[in-house]
Amino acid sequence: MIAVAVSLAALAVGSWYLRQSYCGLRQLRAETALAWGKLEALYAARDAVLAACFTAGASAARSGVLSSGVMQAIDAAAAARAAGNIAAVSAAEHRLRNARRRLETALRNAAPAPEAAALTLLHSRLATLETAIAAACERYNELVNLSNIRLAGFPGMLFAAGGRLEAALLLDAALDELRPPARLLDPV
Q1: How many structural domains are present in the chain?
Q2: Alpha carbons 184 and 180: distance in angstroms, whole number
């Protein structure tokens, strides 16, 4: 009789532990989804500022090819985010940064004074958004890393083997460059 009671108590404690572990992993995944949502909103705001910035400066730089390259990179990054493909997002963000640097150099060398003030204002907003994106990427990567570590141990590996939860990819774009972009124009 005592052996049965001890067995039932052990089963109850084990069940409680598994349930708590599963709920903790689900909560972590929900936090990760919220972090991704915040990151998407920041990316969308950044893309809008980039589009305004390069539309305002494109005539000054007479660099339609460079500007269209940035716009194509923005579209590719947005499509990758919409598809939820983390690896594609990382690659698209890297391409966007490269295209943006080429256009920033052209704008820095060619923008006339009237457009310089508008570009400087847009750039300050862009720098703020890039800093927020870097922080949000770090938070997202922390949550993904914590989730992956918990899935690799017991009882997370049971949930992963059961197909209920799986490891997620880190967002490499955040790790490439965690500083704001270079100034488009020197202060006027």
Answers
A1: 1
A2: 11
Quick check: is 186 in a domain? Answer: no
Confirm whether 64 is domain-assigned: yes
**Count of C-beta atoms within a 10 Å radius of residue 179:** 9
The answer to whether the CB of 11 falls within 8 A of the CB of 45 is no
Three-class DSSP category at 112: coil
Domain assignment of residue 4, yes or no: no
pLDDT score of 183:
41
List of residues 6+ apart from 87 with CB closer than 8 A? 169, 172
Least confident segment among 18-27, 63-72, 86-95: 63-72
Which residue has 């972009």 as its token pair?
A: 181
Residue 81 domain flag: yes
Q: Which residues span the domain enclosing 48?
A: 28-176
